[in-house]
Amino acid sequence: MLVIYGGLFFALFIRIFYIQSTGEVKGQQLEAKAAALYGKEAVLSAERGKILDRNGGVIAEDTLSYRLVAVVNPEATTDSDKPRHVVDPEKTAKVLAKYIPMEESEIHKILTKKLSDGRTPYQVEFGVAGRSISHEVMTAIKNEKLEGITFVSDSKRYYPNGPFASHLIGFALKEEQEDGSFKTVGKMGLEYTYNKELTGKDGSMQYESDIFGYLLPNSEKMVTPAENGDNIYLTLDKTIQNFLEESMTNVYKEYDPESMVAVVADAKTGEILAMSQRPTFDPDTREGLDSWNNNIIESVIEPGSTMKTFTLATAIETDNWHPNAIYQSGSYTLMDRTIRDHNLNGWGPITYLEGFQRSSNTAMANMLEYIGNDTLIDYFKKFGFGEKTGIDLPGEASGTLLTKWPINYVTTSYGQGSTVTPIQLVQAMTAIANDGEMMQPFVIDKIVDSSTGEVIKDEKPTVKGKPVSKETAKQVREILASTVTSEAGTAKGFAIEGYEVAGKTGTAYIPRSDGSGRYLTGNKNNYLYSFLGMAPADDPQLIVYVAVKQPKLEVTEVGSQPVSEVFTSVMQNSLKYLNINPEDVAEAEKTTMKDYVGENAENVQTELMNQGVTPVVIGDGGKIIAQYPEKDLSMTKGSIVFLKTEGSITLPSFENWSLRNLLAYKMMSGLTIEIVGEGYVESQSVSANTIIEKGSPIVVQLRTPEEIYSSPPVEETPAEGEELPQD
User: What is the DSSP string of 355-369?
Assistant: First the structure.
């Protein structure tokens, strides 16, 4: 026995020694087996980057959601009185079908499915239908008290503003990847175009645990941090976009048109401040999504008489504008083709200036004889027609300038036949608004690393060309303004209180969808009505383009009415929001900011007040450590200047402050200010002259200019000049 046991012990010793020296058993590495058994790896999910407006307002972001999980294996239940698995699949399926977008039969199939070897899985999930569940739905399901139903924290893409520039922003959805994981992927709009920049990189955490999943003592955790996606700041202004969305929704409900588009742009830089279309959709639910096209960029139109703006500019620039010369209105014949004015009999012999104000097609045809066909097309190309603007969005169309037949030049001069995109019209109008310099439109302000704050991409205004001189641009603005103020003008309904508007109406034929090359006719509901305008006329700050296709008009209504309701509301509210003072904007006195950092605040206050600006000191006074605006920036008199010093902060009165000034104060002071609403400050929760400690909450309520100022009524009498362009 001693020999036997001694032999067995010696054999065991040899085996242990062998295993320790080689680390192998039956050709398998024990270290690898142990690592597989005890080594764990957890995924650290990266957040998708945010899409924000120019002021940092959130347009799209990741937010907390929940993932639905059903525990189906009976082994999960240790106490039969408290089941932890799905006991009744039929009942569970019936209840869940009320809350998630999946048929009851499909839910039941998932709850009762088996693994390939016939065993019951421990738990199951419900694919896309069981993901991105809101807190409200999660709570409602929990209240049903279903056995075996649980939730795991997840994230979803959230669009807090509802239908808000939806065809521009697009949407992103969770998609299952090849490895079974889910990732948010951009499917449309900026979410799709900038998917790479917005998508982060998941991290991981590696650690050792026992078989029950508990962390082993002295084990090391290896963490690879997640890299969140980049944040994209747009040139959009949420306040102006909201003005536009609300106005378009009201008009869309009232007139039930086939479609609408509208754009608001900064006349000086080409930045797009707002962009929308109807029909639209809710990016959270995709409700209402019937077209994936951003019609402002991707669809072409025959622009109608808005194009006369650039025919006029060409005539002036080439010394072929004779405003007081007389021509015979009514009709114009070229070879076998006759075009007519919207007033078929015309107005008799009138001046070219009156003809433009009345939006006469025959005025343009007669002017073309002076300008010349090739010269007209050459200048239209200088204005950017016939080629893409280069806006930082995909799928842009270029439009076509027709030159095949002599009549094409004539119809192009007043906006029929040739095609353009709405964004091309806006780009071309910047040349008129900006003293001849044409600015390229753009929507991306900057792209920022969300982790470090480093600006990865910073867009700047780009001059695309100078199709006309400063003098020509000024003269065109004056003539465009006369279409609003003149008794003969077609745009009288586009006047707004306190500001001089310059612009051009348009009424264009709509091509038939049958490919016949002919146009819809029959009644006034079968046209595309539009307006391309800017304000203030002397020194334009904003350009607004609105087009309404086939509105349902009453007998007494004209096509310009739905267009003017959008234009006047959005333009007036936006100008007031931007603190652009009514009247004499071009002559407003300005002052240039000096560098006041390091100087005494009390002395600087006196100097600034003498210059006509309002200083606001943030702190106790004394030495200035920061200022806003910064040095060398020009500002109009009456503006607010912020001077930051050390010490405690006494809260000023925010009454009638704009959102922009409030955001600047919040940034410089570091105070916790909750801003409710948009527009101008109506009230504040903490009284002025109160000493505030950092961290103390302050609520400031704002009201929009639309609530403060009543919009001017649109003329009820039909404005002359809603021309019916000739086929």
Answer: HHHTT-HHHHHHHHH
